[in-house]
What we know:
Blueprint: E1 2-4, E2 9-12, E3 15-19, H1 20-31, E4 38-42, E5 51-54, E6 62-66, H2 74-77, E7 82-86, E8 104-109, H3 113-121, H4 128-151, E9 154-158, H5 160-166, E10 173-176, H6 189-200, E11 205-210, H7 222-231, E12 236-241, H8 247-255, E13 263-267, H9 271-282, E14 285-288, H10 297-304, E15 308-312, H11 315-324, E16 327-330, H12 335-345, H13 349-365, H14 368-383
Amino acid sequence: MLMIAPAPVIETGNRLRLDVKFVEGMRVQQALWSTRITVALRRGAPAIPFGRDYDRSELPFDLVLLDPDEELTARHMEGFDLIYAGGDDFRCLGLTDHLKPGQKIVYVIEYTFETRMQILGLDRSRGMLGRLKGGLWLRQQEKRRERAFRAAVALQANGYPAYDTYAPMCPDTLLYLDGRMTPELFATEAEMTAREAWRAADGPLRLIFSGRLEPMKGAQDLLPVARRLIERGVDFTLDVFGTGALQGEIAAGIQRLKEPGRVRLHGAIDFETELVPFTRTQADIFVGCHRQSDPSCTYIEAMGCGVAVVSYDNRMWERLNGEAKAGWGTPLGDPKALADRIADLARDPAAIIAASRNALVFSRAHGFLPEFQRRMEHLARIAGRPLPSKGLAASG
Length: 396
């Protein structure tokens, strides 16, 4: 199998700097495949924040490095039976033209055309002409994407919007929910009980946001939500974790709040050792102000920490919450409505407790390991190969 992945890589002498979570995820994936996987990555990453330097011998897969704009051709796929490629990467959309008899290609897709257009519309760096040109380019690429998916043997769709949009184009489409929650990361019963006691005692409502501080993630709405909660006299705290283009703007805006101590900006922290423990013990509600419908593993990860969610009703959250009953939705792009829902919930601890329990149950069923198992079983069936009997036990 050749996997063409979007993960960053930096060559440092004879060693390679890679994202630790990508390498560990590949370790799991390799344990679920009967032959050595080859991964193709593109050079050119400026930095890898949570990276580590590796020798090639340390990697659980074979690695091929591509130049940043290197065109993929039949030469790159020579000797591989199964090609596993990112459908979000326009450079992979011509691969179906280069397949030889017996070769099969499976695409993985996350973003829909609607989501791409939403992201373009939220890009503050582009003027009107830039957005028009960007929209035309996106439409051209979408036609190529649809053609590629119709020619592929199968598709794996991350999240409900991608599945709903692209499943009709490919007869063998798997829906999955991506996330990083492994068994040891889920909230414990003691932590759930402690949160319920905090809510029953009417402690300050503990809100949390984690993710990129970018317009596409709705980070510009965090302070309007906080201002409205202060106006309504809600006893709350809001902890914001992440970095991005809006970081300075948010930091300055906090100081202008009537009660600035209620909002705390933390920057980026390690997921497993810092963010997850904090969320499990110091949060009641995740504030989801995403203005577009990307699959956002943040939802499933916050839910795995036993935290209920209040979010704009983008297409992803609307469908996810319909299945999970893990929180509440409010009109898209309306921070006042989002804050008012949170304010009402501050007086309803039983509702928060029930949603938190539902969130944990649903997230456990869609944790990293069971979702990866389903994805690899899907690929094995397509390739006509049995999965290794050692399975997930070997991945740790």
